[in-house]
Amino acid sequence: MGAFRGAFDIKPAQGGRVPLPAQRRRWLGEFLKTYAVVIIGYAGFYLLRTNFKSAQPFLQDQIGLTTTQLGTIGFLFSLTYGFGGLLLGFFFDGRNTKRIVSALLIGSGVVAIAIGLTLATAKNPFGYLILLWSMNGLLQAPGGPCCNSTMNRWTPRRYRGRFIGWWNASHNIGAMIAGVLALWGANTFFHGSVVGMFVVPALVAIPIGVWGLFFGKDDPSELGWDRPEAIFGEPESKADIVNEGVSKGQILLTYVVKNPAVWFLCIANVAAYAVRIGVDNWNVLYTRQVLGFSDYTAVNTTIALEIGGLAGSLLWGYVSDRLGGRRALTATICLVLVIAPVLVYAHATTPAVVYPALFFIGFLIFGPVTLIGISVIGFAPKSATVVVNAVPRAFGYVFGDSLAKVLLGRIADPEKEGLHLFGHVLHGWGATFNVLIASALVGILCLAVVAFFEERMLRDDRAFTEQKARLDRGSDQDPTARPGAVGDTESEDLK
């Protein structure tokens, strides 16, 4: 435990304070170093995650695994990934999350090499793969929340949306590279063996993790700087000020367990994931079997969706910045608009209509998918970013993913009886689209409620900063006043 603290603690710089103008001049250059680590590092996680999808046909042909076995392995990854962020997030909060991301990437790479060795040596690797792939899910689970924590420490509210949104696009890039890298590595170095589809991505990811350990700073205080809000003259979060020195348990209770905004965001994230995964997981099957598209045309529907998602990740965070940090409001607008392309997709019969519909579904649904994570960290102090970000992620990944894959699959399956719900039978592809639209409506309702909470929080932060500034001015004018005790009533009001 002591070694962990030594390696992953935030260590403020010793010495004199750097003047604010100098901090402002140097901020972009120093932040971009850290930003490069979280972008490249998070893309690295996808090299060691999406490679499994590409490897599945080869695991069947070369290793003899069945579709059911592959599904079991993938499901257990989802479980450890969904809940691992919650379990580890509480422990990682307040630590040097940039270094933790890098260490987790190294660990994930080591697990991938172990999978390669297992495939090369074990006669029946199914049980080992369950254990190792589940371990990979656990190691990758805190990656996104830890990246959010680092970016949250570096960015003021006015820039946070765009930078986290642009970072979110790194997973699209990593996912697009993963399959090509895995197959190239297997064919080039392992004579086409599936072993190379795990070992080669690991040999790329591990050096990225080592580099990330030492490049950039996790927190401006490590340079002797102030908080980003002070650097840019922005109102500081009331939650950050009043919770200095408060225990993690109390922060978790106050800002997560007792915070209705977090739970509304959890439900909204389930709804957003249901739409996203519900389209993404079934678009190839639907367009090929129902619409009669060729194999090539059906597979390319995924590209249209991913390009739209990439564009949405790049844009919507910036839009929310321009709207004064109103993430939930922006996400609500996206979910309202996404209903239109979902309806177009449900009635489309040709690629000329399906491709644009999928592009706009990806473009719009990645608004709430990105912004819910940014919104939720605004309701808690920076010392709780990892765990508070992990809560809606866990709900979205476990429940939204399950709804989109399991329930929609049952509804669409012509050989099943469908889903009986409140005296109605949901059956067939038409019913699946109705479920997607219903999910969007639930998300809209929840995000509209959060938008109200968010507006109140923004107003409270501005009022708190103004009051704190008045107290500070009063303290400066009275040299006998004790810091933080300029009138007992006013000091209590700040809390």
From TrEMBL:
Pfam families assigned to the protein according to its UniProt record, in alphabetical order: MFS_1
Domain of life: Bacteria
Gene3D superfamilies membership: MFS general substrate transporter like domains
InterPro entries, sorted: MFS, MFS_dom, MFS_trans_sf, OPA_Antiporter, Sugar_P_transporter
PROSITE patterns: MFS (PS50850)
Keyword Nucleotidyltransferase: no
Keyword Transmembrane in annotation: yes
Transmembrane feature ranges: 27-48, 68-88, 100-120, 164-184, 190-214, 261-279, 299-319, 328-348, 354-379, 431-453
Topological type in the membrane: Multi-pass membrane protein
Localization terms from the record: Cell membrane
Keywords: Membrane, Transmembrane, Transmembrane helix
Domain Major facilitator superfamily (MFS) profile residues, every copy: 22-458
Region described as Disordered: 468-495
UniProt-listed PANTHER family: GLUCOSE-6-PHOSPHATE EXCHANGER SLC37A4, PROTEIN, PUTATIVE-RELATED
Protein's name according to its UniProt entry: Hexose-6-phosphate:phosphate antiporter
The organism of origin for this protein: Schaalia naturae
Taxon lineage: Bacteria, Bacillati, Actinomycetota, Actinomycetes, Actinomycetales
Gene behind this protein: uhpT
